[in-house]
Amino acid sequence: MSLRTIPPLPDKPVRKKRIGVRVKWLLLFLLVVLLVVLFFRSSISKIKEVRWIGNHLVSYEQLSSSSGVKPGEPYFGTSESSVEDRIKAEFPFVKSVQVDKQFPGVIEIYIQEYAPVAYELTEDGSIQACLENGVVISLKDKQKLVLEKPVLTQWEGQAELKTELSKALAATPRGLLADISEIRYYPSSSYPDRIKMYTRSGFEVVTTVPLLPDKIAYLSGVVESQSPGRITMLKADSYIPYSSLPNDIEALEGAKEDKGEADSSEQNKEGTGSENTNEKVRGSEQEKGADAENDIKGPEKGQETNKETE
Predict the structure, then answer these.
(1) pLDDT by residue (tens digit) across 212-241?
(2) How far is the first Cα of the chain from the last one, in angstroms, to the nearest whole number?
């Protein structure tokens, strides 16, 4: 019986297999790149719809132009921080911006604006809104809605004081702010920042812009508990019902303010006079003290001379 020898198996083509794997990975990479290019060139990667929510003082066209968020723009090239910075830089009355993306192609942008605290009637008949952050903007015809906030009158040339007033009104309770119908610039020689307010409940309030935030509690208490009348909130607070109000209240208040100025000037003069008197008294006392020292030193000098002669 003859034995057969089994021939050895041929070696595996290792190199060809490695080359085939590399080709497969290269083709896969090229396919991914091609898909990415096709995706970004297709309509799926573009913005199809932009929804602006919460804007009242600015139009959709203005927001789209300033932010750059428009249909047809790249969907993934829109970031919330860049959109917010662009809108706030152009529109200072915008408080916050929130961007919500909904794939594919839908973007919702929520706009929060500073609330108006008062309105102003200008000389040409247009209406301006004073916002809670102190910014004043002009309203268009379509934005002239029901004015549930106070109306400012006679405020020409008082931009800084009007900004301070807007911030003070922003801290006023809503119910009390809605009750104020008009705020008039009402300066005097003693109070150049004095204002007069009229309420829908029938009150007339006289105060100053810096004092208004501290007087809100007193004003709320009087309006809620008393009958209509005149409320004065200056250095001292007072309330007089209309039935007890004198006819010449304006002249009376002017006389009181003039008297207060005169009293303060007299007090200043008295203070200055008393200081001068005190200085004179001190001077005379010093002179007397010097004379007394000379009288004391005189005999001592005489004694010394006598000793020397001896």
Answers:
(1) 999 988 998 999 999 999 999 998 899 999
(2) 174
150 and 169 Cβ atoms separated by less than 8 Å: yes
pLDDT per position as a tens digit, 17-61:
667 777 788 888 888 888 877 767 777 778 888 899 988 888 888
> Does residue 234 share a domain with residue 124?
yes
Residue 285 CA to residue 276 CA, distance in Å, equals: 14
Question: Domain holding 95: CATH number?
Answer: 3.10.20.310
- Measured distance CA(55)–CA(111) in Å, rounded: 6
